[in-house]
Amino acid sequence: MIILKICAVIPAYNEEENIAEVVKKTREHVDSVIVVDDGSEDDTAHIAEMMGATVVSHLVNMGKGFALETGIEKALENGSDILVTIDADNQHDPKDIPRLSNILINENLDIVFGSRSLDGDMPLILKFGNWWLCKSAQLLFGTKVTDSQSGFKAFRRDAYEKLKWRSSHYSVDSEIIMNAGTNKLRHKQIPIKTLYNCNHKGTTVIDGIRIFLNMLLWRFKG
Q1: Could you give the CA distance from residue 86 to residue 26 in angstroms, rounded to a whole number?
Q2: Rounded to an integer, what distance in angstroms lies between the CA atom of residue 54 and that of residue 159?
Q3: Using CA of residue 212, residue 215, residue 219, residue 221, what is the dihedral sign?
Q4: CA-CA-CA-CA torsion sign (141, 147, 150, 152)
Q5: Cα–Cα distances in angstroms (integers) from residue 40 to residues 47, 50, 66, 91, 95, in the given order
Q6: CB 175 within 8 A of CB 167
Q7: CA separation (Å) from 125 to 116, 130, 134, 204?
Q8: Superfamily of domain 6-221
Q9: pLDDT digits 0-9 by tens, 158-184
Q10: Which residues of 106-123 are buried (b: 16+ CB within 10 A; e: fewer)?
Q11: Among the residues of 37-157, which ranges form H helices?
Q12: How many Cβ atoms from other residues are within 10 Å of residue 34's Cβ?
């Protein structure tokens, strides 16, 4: 029986209040945890390391997409077979990691997306923006993923080259969906529980407009 090595990659920027709990809970479900400290000005890196994560630090803030790439490359160097990406702000429940990874493995998929929209608890403003971006992605790329900005996903190491993104910021999640669609990767989405809080640093209206413009650029410029 082949045992696959699972690594969680957590991009983090100024998350000293949440990173300890996120790393602790995540370590229960994976073989290793890599935290990419994306130029934080607080103790994010130190706390993550104390909690048992491997920490890779950027000197300055480079953006979510860049941080994810740094973490994935490190995980591949360490021989990981399954890559799980999860946000550092304690919105995701690491208990969902086995669900994502087991479906990925048992159904022989390339990538599994955690979808907040399937759970139904998404705030109205986020729900509308997400609907708009997802509909745009469906029209432009033929994909049917219903949560364009979920940072919680699992994919195989051999799918990474086809998923690989150029976005350095929040557009990365939409670009991954686009790449999964255009490269006809085997994918599925499952509902995940999400805790929304007032300190959420996710996509804003301006970010949403920027992501939409990027999708147009990807579609018509290639």
Answers
A1: 9
A2: 23
A3: positive
A4: negative
A5: 12, 16, 14, 19, 26
A6: yes
A7: 13, 9, 14, 10
A8: Spore Coat Polysaccharide Biosynthesis Protein SpsA; Chain A (3.90.550.10)
A9: 999 999 998 877 788 888 988 998 899
A10: eeebbbbbbbbbeeeebe
A11: 44-50, 64-77, 97-106, 124-141
A12: 24
Residue pair 86/22 in contact by the 8 Å Cβ criterion:
yes
Amino acid at 195: L
Residue pLDDT, tens place only, 7-52: 999 999 999 999 999 999 999 999 999 999 999 999 999 999 999 9
Amino acid (1-letter code) at residue 46: H
Number of H-type helices and E-type strands within the chain: 8, 7
**Tokens 């990874």 map to which residue?**
101
- Placement of tokens 């557009």 in the chain: 171
Residue type, 52: G
CA–CA distances in Å: residue 196 to residues 154, 158, 172:
21, 33, 21
Contact in structure between 47 and 18 (CB atoms under 8 Å)? no
Nearest alpha-carbon partner for 171 in 143, 121, 137, 197: 137
Please determine, for residue 203, whether its predicted confidence score (pLDDT) is greater than 90: no
- Binned at pLDDT 50, 70 and 90, residue 105 comes out as very high
